[in-house]
Amino acid sequence: DAKTTQPPSMDCAEGRAANLPCNHSTISGNEYVYWYRQIHSQGPQYIIHGLKNNETNEMASLIITEDRKSSTLILPHATLRDTAVYYCIVRPHTGTASKLTFGTGTRLQVTL
Amino acid sequence: DAGITQSPRHKVTETGTPVTLRCHQTENHRYMYWYRQDPGHGLRLIHYSYGVKDTDKGEVSDGYSVSRSKTEDFLLTLESATSSQTSVYFCAISGEKGAGGDLPTEAFFGQGTRLTVV
Question: Computed over its alpha carbons, how large is the radius of gyration of chain B?
């Protein structure tokens, strides 16, 4: 499975955009990039995913580079409730290979 | 919330005893996963299932077994619990979409089971 690399921690001021980078240089053609977050000790929560085009939903935007070797999750107006650990995951295609493997993620601290 | 339930939510057991954790879903999703989470390690995949009776090992499968006899239930068993298996266990489910059923859907996680082995 392709591995991901994320910074261990980041800070962001409330109301500003939080840009969380992820490196996945060994990603293969049919692997999707997924982002999840985990607030305190709750179960992880899905945020967004994409294959090669940029994606946006009500929570965030996902920017994937043209070579697909890295991506950035953007929280446009971070709030204190966005403080969490954010996981970038590369997910293989379906079938027997569709396991979901997490790294250690980025701990985002949103401050006043 | 996605229809996924873990039971029990909390359990304390003694070293050497067998323990079974249950993950139940009402979404009819194909894939089910068991993770453990420990401080400093993030979420680590124990076992996963890609269909009834179809399971495979994750990165930390030693000391654990799983069974999936029907779509809705995925059981995680610790045959002889050890203190190193004290952890928070999460179950997750995900499905497929698209005309060929070849597009993975997002995963939904349960609320976790806190297991303490004394």
Answer: 14
- Is the Cβ of B42 closer than 8 Å to some Cβ of chain A? yes
Q: Which two tokens stand for residue B75?
A: 């059981």
List, in order, residues 6 or more apart from A33 with CB less than 8 Å away.
Answer: A22, A24, A27, A49, A50, A51, A62, A64, A68, A71, A88, A89, A90, A91
Amino acid at site B71: T
In chain B, which residues have their Cβ closer than 8 Å to the Cβ of A49? Answer: 106
Closest CB to B92 among A85, A87, A100: A100
- Residue A53 in contact with partner chain B when CB distance is under 8 A: no
pLDDT digits 0-9 by tens, A67-98: 999 999 999 999 999 999 999 999 876 655 56
What six digits make up the tokens of A60?
A: 């965030």
